[in-house]
Amino acid sequence: MMRAIGLMSGTSLDGVDVALIETDGEAVHVVRGHNNYLEPLGPTGYRGYSEDEKGLLRAATKDAEGVVAPGDRPGRLPEAEAFVTEAHAQAVEQFLAENGLSAGEIDVIGFHGQTVIHRPDQRITIQVGDGQALADRLRIPVVSDMRRADIEAGGQGAPLVPVFHQALAAASGFEGAFGILNIGGVANATLIDSKGGVIAFDTGPGNSLIDEWMQEREGKNLDDGGRTAARGRADEPLLAWLLTHPFFFRRPPKSLDRNWFSHKLAGQLSTEDGAATLTAFTARAVARALDHAPEIPARWIVAGGGARNGELVRLLNYHLRAEITMADAIGWSSAFLEAQAFAHLAVRSLKGLPITFPSTTGVREPMTGGVLARPRDSSGS
User: Fold this and answer.
1) Do the annotations mark residue 45 as ligand-binding?
2) Residues that bind ATP, according to the entry (predicted)?
3) Is 10 annotated as a binding residue?
4) Is 13 annotated to bind ligand?
């Protein structure tokens, strides 16, 4: 087993998640309690973004719309890359100090970076963040840029987390058909059938449209608990139109850029009705995943920030008509699952194990990925 730290800054643009796990790249080290409850895999940490920092990332994401080649860094992207690297370094340094750990006790860091654009059909995906600079500062090997190899080979480059989902499911002893839903800025599903077959894909918007709506209307970062949406009424004609987007008719594997959908479509509605409409859109987009399921899941495990949105969870219960369990209720980490996943992926990358698969990204054959940066000495060698 190796000790790995995973770092995740998602499309919700709220901050850096840090998680430490022990893994050999195949299985994760777990302690199983009563009813297959897993004890925490390891300590976690968080470094939030200030409003000014979020503003920089939003501006960089907007500037990234001008990218026409993978190496392009227009507008504020260079500034954002330097900031993302610095913020992640601070997050790890704080995490190590709080947990009494030294750099020498960590084998590798999985560094996702900040996605600013994802256009797999054009073979472009950019996660800003300098893996080599991070390795040099922290004195720990860093694996970053984990989507690029898959994209260059014709895959979607996303989602990457399903291989970790499989490891967690095996540790929990799950049987039968079930789904794992992660609701970050974008929502993605991993569907595992009763024979162990896996497909995975982005289902559509997650929290991003709701968060942007609340920011614009009330200056809030999110609809806390879904309470604003619960007071509103969804606009059914608008919902029906939104669900005609070509993305929902594409067969998986498939992934999307958060900019493909806009919260401004709800602009003529009240704050409450707009929140209700966008929340219902997220839930119904997830339900459309059942159109592609080889077996209808009898159970769903829900993780990510959306798991804390009570109105969204209520709608998922209604539309999925299956047993829905919050990740935290079975010992999985709802808030830090993706950070844990990137720790697991970093170890797989070090060992040359595949991190993407035909049934998860559409790549022709299982592929490893990631760029390894080892700490250089002060002379740069």
Assistant:
1) no
2) 10-17
3) yes
4) yes
Structural domains of the chain, count: 2
> Is 150 marked as binding a ligand?
no
Annotated binding-site residue? 291: no
Strand partners for 303: 182
Q: What is the pLDDT of residues 63-118, one digit of tens each?
A: 999 999 988 999 999 999 999 999 999 999 999 999 999 999 999 999 999 999 99
Same domain, 61 and 144: yes
Same domain, 152 and 80: yes
Is 50 annotated to bind a ligand? Reply is no
Give tens-digit pLDDT for 207-248.
989 999 999 999 998 999 999 999 999 999 999 999 999 999
**What are the residues whose beta carbons fall under 8 Å from the beta carbon of 2, sequence distance 6 or more?**
22, 23, 24, 25, 107, 108, 347, 350
- Provide the domain limits for residue 67: 2-157+337-373
Judge whether 328 is annotated as a binding position: no
Same domain, 273 and 369: no
Q: Is the dihedral of CA 271, 274, 280, 283 positive or negative?
A: negative
CATH number at residue 134: 3.30.420.40
Q: Where are the alpha helices (DSSP H) in the chain?
A: 51-63, 77-98, 131-138, 148-152, 162-172, 208-218, 227-230, 236-242, 271-287, 310-320, 337-350, 358-361
